[in-house]
From TrEMBL:
It catalyses: holo-[ACP] + malonyl-CoA = malonyl-[ACP] + CoA. GO terms for biological process: fatty acid biosynthetic process; mitochondrial small ribosomal subunit assembly. GO terms for molecular function: [acyl-carrier-protein] S-malonyltransferase activity. It comes from Sus scrofa. InterPro entries: Ac_transferase_dom_sf, Acyl_transferase_dom, Acyl_Trfase/lysoPLipase, Malonyl_transacylase_ACP-bd, Mitochondrial_malonyltrans. This is Malonyl-CoA-acyl carrier protein transacylase, mitochondrial. GO terms for cellular component: mitochondrion. PANTHER family: MALONYL-COA ACP TRANSACYLASE, ACP-BINDING (PTHR47170), MALONYL-COA:ACP TRANSACYLASE (MAT) DOMAIN-CONTAINING PROTEIN (PTHR47170:SF2). Keywords: Fatty acid biosynthesis, Fatty acid metabolism, Lipid biosynthesis, Lipid metabolism, Mitochondrion, Transferase, Transit peptide.
Length: 483
């Protein structure tokens, strides 16, 4: 089986009995899901896919970005449960973790979800569940994926997606990592500070003087250093809380435009996390890591992994090393002038990585989409029935009054929608017209579609039953027609 076919068959690898017999650390009981079996089986056909990938145009390729800790929110996963095998994925996670991760993700409370020991597994599983949604909606994206990267704990999800490790092994490693980091963070009052600077900002000087301030307070071996390189002039600084408070109070001195505490429990990616190294290294030692079937970039170096032994070394080192995300974005999207950029999909909660990509590479961001994990949260008090229409169905719609000035009904609908896309008026049906050859969607959607990948160029036709309207407005997502 070729790698390309294996990627297209992503979801088929989620089956029972997936753990390897060569692993001797405490694995989940039989019945846990093996997400990446078909990806692993494709390793034998490695040379063939390389040739096929070379023939693919850059604009036809895709890149997957996996978010990290801090993106979690109560309700994540609710928008994924209607897709095949997602509930099975959460059931397997429950057996690995020993608690109901789905219940915690859906209902919180937020303070429990924000705890490192919970949010890292939650983001990991939600991201891979989002991959299942993407595979269901646009299988070609998985088939044509050429690179993946994950922010901090998201790197584990990227490696599982790429077939470097199995889902159960990856989740178990994340569990041990989260528990060890939680324990390390509770030992010392510490945190992380997001800093938006300017070209003249003095990050190095600021961190050095913050450490000197801590020494005057009697703190031995104070820590204050850059932990995340996000995009030009934007950093996340980790360290003792006293150092971070000093930086916030003196931000004007170092030309910081804005500072904000990150909702995490410790100074991650600094030497304060050294107690977490041994437990994680012990787990990774017993995992049979494989070479990723797509390029996966390391947080530590920004470069793609070349050998499985590098994965084991750098995943451990990552815990106490800064995340070089800005460098990773440059490595993935660097290309000759005039060359098309791949389609980029952020799979998981939040859109932070998309925002960072926009600041790192505006042209690459224009092909960015987010795979939403939350249920549509607008107009939930109204019932809508949605039908999916393709370009070929457009001639069958009775169009009228397209964008006829600020007083038109189309203009009014655009203001209500807020999407700023072109609107048309169409007749609405209780059933799709016979000429369209369509059938009703299997399950009605609530609210209008607000985000997420769209298959080809589509229209969502909402039927507003509360007003029994004879017509409705349909938003043409022209900006997503290349997704």
């Amino acid at each position: 089986m070729s790698v390309r076919v294996a990627r297209a068959a992503w979801a088929c690898g989620w089956r029972a009995g997936g753990h390897r017999s060569t692993s001797n650390f405490p694995l989940p009981p039989p019945g846990a899901v093996d997400v990446a079996e078909l990806l692993r089986d494709a390793a034998a056909g490695e040379e063939g896919p390389r040739v096929a990938a070379a023939r693919r145009l850059p604009g036809q390729c895709s890149v997957l970005l996996f978010p990290g800790q801090g993106s979690q929110v109560v309700g994540m996963g609710r928008g994924l449960l209607r897709y095949p095998r997602v509930r099975e994925l959460y059931a397997a996670a429950r057996r690995v973790l020993g608690y109901d991760l789905l219940e915690l993700s859906l209902h919180g409370p937020q303070e429990d979800l924000d705890r490192t020991v919970h949010c890292q597994p939650a983001v990991f599983v939600a991201s891979l569940a989002a991959v299942e949604k993407l595979h269901h909606l646009q299988p070609a994206v998985i088939e044509n994926c050429v690179a993946a990267a994950g922010f901090s704990v998201g790197e584990f999800a990227a490696l599982v997606f790429a077939g470097a490790m199995e889902f159960c092994e990856g989740l178990y490693a994340v569990k041990i990592r989260a528990e060890a980091m939680q324990e390390a963070s509770e030992a010392v009052p510490s945190g992380m500070l997001s800093v938006l600077g300017q070209p003249q900002s003095k990050f190095t000087v600021a961190c050095r003087e913050a450490r000197e301030h801590c020494r005057t307070l009697g703190i031995e071996n104070p820590v204050c250093e850059v932990a995340n390189f996000l995009f030009p002039d934007c950093r996340v600084i980790s360290g003792h809380l006293e150092a971070l408070h000093y930086l916030r109070k003196n931000s004007y001195k170092y030309h910081f435009r804005r500072t904000k505490m990150v909702p995490v429990s410790g100074a991650f990616h600094t030497r304060l996390m050294e107690p977490a190294l041994e437990p994680l290294a012990h787990v990774l030692k017993d995992i049979d890591l494989k070479k990723p079937l797509v390029s996966v970039h390391s947080n530590v170096t920004g470069n793609k992994y070349m050998h499985p032994k590098h994965i084991r070394q750098l995943l451990v080192q990552q815990v106490v090393s800064p995340v070089k995300w800005e460098q990773t974005m440059h490595a993935i999207y660097e290309r000759r002038k005039g060359t098309d950029f791949p389609k980029t999909f952020e799979v998981g909660p939040g859109k932070q990585l998309g925002t960072i990509l926009k600041s790192c590479n505006l042209q690459a961001w224009k092909s960015y989409s987010h795979v939403a994990v939350l249920e549509a949260d607008q107009d939930e008090d109204q019932n809508f029935t949605s039908y999916l229409l393709r370009d070929s169905d457009l001639p069958h719609l009775q169009k009228s009054r397209l964008d006829q000035g600020p007083g038109s009904r189309a203009s009014n609908a655009q203001r209500r929608c807020g999407c700023r896309k072109r609107h048309v008026q169409v007749r609405h049906w209780s059933q799709p017209p016979a000429c369209s050859g369509l059938s009703p969607t299997p399950a009605p959607f609530r609210g209008r579609l607000t985000s997420g990948p769209i298959t080809s160029r589509v229209l969502w036709c909402p039927l507003d039953t509360s007003r029994n309207s004879l017509s409705c407005f349909v938003c043409i997502f022209s900006s997503l027609e290349k997704v």
